[in-house]
Amino acid sequence: MLRLSSYFVLFFFFGSCGRIYWDNTISSYASDYDYRYQTYKNIEHRKLNWSDFPGRIDPKSRAGAAIFWDICYTLDSMYIYSNPGEDSENWVHANINVFAGVGSLSWIDTLFKKSGQLINHEQRHYDIAKIYAAKFRKIIPSLPPFSRFNWVNRIDSAKAIVKKECMLLQTQYDSETEHGIQRAMQEKWDKKIDILLKK
Asked: Domain locations in the chain?
């Protein structure tokens, strides 16, 4: 059995949301912002609405809207422990809360606020992020024990692998739907994403 030598709880003390956004339509926007100051919120319990897009419009973009998403995690609680026969507390057990986040730089052109087609396309970007957040959530318990000296890097490395897969699917989604313009293909992706969400 594990010997718990010390115990403490941290609420919302630590979290990680990458500073990388993903949307091909806004690549020219990258130099205009310091992404360290972008915040992400968890709205997995509901659908997107245009109030989730408070960012400044990109004047260089031809898109009607852009969503900034990420796979995020916060540390709900943790404890440091030692294994039997060890004198030092070298191991960490962390309770991690994982969610798909919507970034505060997400934006909408006011001319398109009544477009159900557009918000559905952006919703599906967020749904894809939710799919991979769920995958990351399942991976964490299967990771080997965390050393107290590198546990953050271990979690971030696992997240990076999942996020890379997510970004590939996001790219494919935008490419095949032409950013939501091709309605028939958009409907096919809607069905595909709905199936993946249920897995």
From this structure: 14-198
